From TrEMBL:
Keywords: Activator, DNA-binding, Nucleus, Transcription, Transcription regulation, Wnt signaling pathway. Residues 154-222 form the HMG box domain. CDD domains: HMG-box_TCF7-like. GO terms for molecular function: DNA-binding transcription factor activity, RNA polymerase II-specific; RNA polymerase II cis-regulatory region sequence-specific DNA binding. GO terms for cellular component: beta-catenin-TCF complex; chromatin. GO terms for biological process: canonical Wnt signaling pathway. SUPFAM superfamilies: HMG-box (SSF47095). Belongs to the TCF/LEF family. It comes from Callithrix jacchus. The gene is TCF7. Residues 18-65, 224-254 are annotated as: Disordered. This is Transcription factor 7.
Amino acid sequence: MYKETVYSAFNLLMHYPPASGAGQHPQPQPPLHKASQPAHGVPQLSPLYEHFSSPHPTPAPVDISQKQVPRPLQTPDLSGFYSLTSGSMGQLPHTVSWFTHPSLMLGSGVPGHPAAIPHPTIVPASGKELQPYDRNLKTQAESKAEKEAKKPTIKKPLNAFMLYMKEMRAKVIAECTLKESAAINQILGRRWHALSREEQAKYYELARKERQLHMQLYPGWSARDNYGKKKRRSREKHQESTTDPGSPKKCRARFGLNQQTDWCGPCR
DNA sequence: GTACCTTTGAAGCAG
DNA sequence: CTGCTTCAAAGGTAC
């Protein structure tokens, strides 16, 4: 069933091929620089802004100066970031995510500001609304465990591909009339590989700024904090068989191919 | 009700 | 240092 959906997704992909590659696997590209170590040629914020405002059937470019958001805690590096996100990114509601963090903008006291809206990366561990604790029914140990479990979870910052997915998902859904995320993500994965280095660099740069902002907001936070919070089934289920090629990523890993550029035969 | 699927990248961890 | 694992998002599916 699942594979059928995936196959249908690929069929659709043939009708909506990426900019280059035309339904085939992407052309090999030179490896990209590490996001944490920007190389020459990384677009500045201005081109980034152009990217998010140009390729889509969106209204005329927004006058950023009229949409500036108070940013009392900004650093020099993040200033342009806020200009970008409060302006053009505002046209992409699904991408704003935590760019407009209330605490950074000192929402309380700012008229009309959604100060009461918690940070999207902070969610109750249960995913549900927090309930008052009933002291009469729980032991201290239970109380401690419960409190721990209900501590708001700070999510990981999104990486470049995740940011790309957030922006492009709606477009793919509209084009392919698909809703199943697994199939959509396969398409997005191929389109990601079909992007030029310059186009990908925009998202790497955005992701780098996301991590930077995340570090400023949560200095002591570690990705390890969220380890084990997702209940997972036995690990055997995740190990692919020798006959199943698995995902391109797994396949590349198994055959020792370049993660950035190479496509293994079974996954084409 | 919730894990799984599916993708890439970042980060953590074990050897 | 290398390689493996986990988790970020998303929403339909399966249990």
